[in-house]
Amino acid sequence: MRKKRTYTIAVVLGLAATISFTAVGCHKSTKTLIIDGNIDCDEINVSSKVPGRIKQLFVDEGTTVKPGDPVVMLESNEIDAKVDAASAAYQSSVARVAQAGTAVKFQRAAFIDQLDEAKAQYEARKEEVRQAEELLNQAKSNFTTQQDSYNRFHGMFAEGVVPRQVEEQYENGYEAAKAQLGAARSKVEQAKAGLKAAAAALQLAQDQSLQVTLREQEHSAIQQQADAAKGQMNEALALQGETRIVAPVAGYVSEKISNTGEMVAPGFPMVTISRANDYKVKVYVDESQFGYLRIGRQIKVVLPAFGDKVVYGRLIRINQAADFATKKATNEQGTLDVRGLQLVIKLDDDPRYRNGMTARVELNVGEK
User: Fold this and answer.
1) Is 94 helix (H, G, I), strand (E, B) or coil?
2) C-beta of residue 77 within 8 angstroms of C-beta of residue 310
3) Which of 44, 57, 221, 269 is the most exposed place for a label (fewest CB within 10 A)?
4) DSSP-assigned states of every residue in 113-127
5) In terms of Cα–Cα distance, which of 349, 350, 352, 325 is closest to 339?
6) What's the pLDDT at 87?
7) Which domains does the chain have, with CATH numbers?
8) 161 pLDDT band (50/70/90 cuts)?
């Protein structure tokens, strides 16, 4: 019984020793590596779309700017001349449009008046024809009556039934009816001739609508020319507007490339603006030691320019570094190639940051 208890105690002590040894053997010590990098931000070269001579520089190196702040003013006599010529051409076309519009209004008003007058004359001539034909019908009826009476009494006079005086009375009535009939026929012919002339005048007045249409087409063509002239003027003004160059982003002028009085070509940078936000730190590390890093992790950064101020950035990108950071192949020895990684760490915005400042990144390396 005593031997069994002794054996049990020995086993327990052995297990305790084993656990203690394992804990010591698996303990991880850490060390901190400091990797120097630089603060980096986007740089924008400010240039012009048009050639010109620098008339005025509104900024100098170190000047803080906001979007829309004036940076450079160029002068270009060629562009100014284009603006003057295009403006004059546009003003001339506007005047021509006004004149053509007045001509259209005058032509339309004249056409309406002439057409109304011609219609009125035509209707009046139609009424004259109607009245003349009505009189003609009456004259025909009267002539027939007078003729029948004359013929009847003329025969009676020849037979000695009625006296000559009665015959002359009916003869005179017959001759008068005959004359009225002729006059009525003549009046109808005149009325029809007048109606024909009125119809021709009406057709002529209606044809004047073509003149109105031509005037309107002329006005439209001149308006199109004016629109084209306005487009050319706006284009010239837009080019003139490009002589005033403003800051596209907020930041500070990190480099002044050109000076007042110099000629610059389109696209040639005059100043460089470092963007005042989106500051990053870029460092290169060994993937064998830092392959465990994950996007979004906080990284400690020390800034010597501010008395070793400690800030914390956020890892936003892990890129494979350039070939010069790749170690030599060791596959022939049974190991893997080791590549360098580029770590990109996003810093919070601070107006004191400047592009190129030293930034020391502290990374912990775990060792068994």
Assistant:
1) helix
2) no
3) 221
4) HHHHHHHHHHHHHHH
5) 325
6) 95
7) 27-42+278-368 (2.40.30.170), 43-76+243-276 (2.40.50.100), 78-241 (1.10.287.620)
8) low
Indicate the residue type of 210: L
Phi and psi based region of residue 68 (left: phi greater than 0; alpha: psi -120 to 50; beta: remaining):
left
- Which run of H or E residues covers position 362? strand 358-367
Lowest mean pLDDT among 62-76, 143-157, 201-215: 143-157
SS (H, E, C) 314-331: EEEEEEECCHHHCCCCCH
Distance CA 240, CA 76 (A): 8
Q: Which residues contact 52 (CB under 8 A, 6 or more apart)?
A: 74, 75, 76, 79, 243, 263, 264
Strands 244-246 and 271-275: unpaired
Closest C-alpha among 230, 278, 233, 225 to residue 251: 278
Strands (E), 212-308: 244-246, 251-256, 263-264, 271-275, 280-286, 298-303
Tokens for 142, please give them. 């009267």
**Distance in angstroms (rounded) separating the CA atoms of residues 153 and 161:** 9
> pLDDT per residue over 283-313, tens digit each?
888 777 776 778 888 999 999 999 989 999 9
Q: Determine whether 77 is exposed, middle or buried from the number of CB atoms within 10 Å of its CB (0-12, 13-18, 19+).
A: exposed
Q: What predicted TM-score, i.e. pTM, was given to this entire model? A: 0.57
From 94, 104, 44, select the one nearest 245 (Cα to Cα).
44
For the segment 115-146, what is each residue's pLDDT rounded down to a tens digit? Answer: 999 999 999 999 999 999 999 999 999 989 88
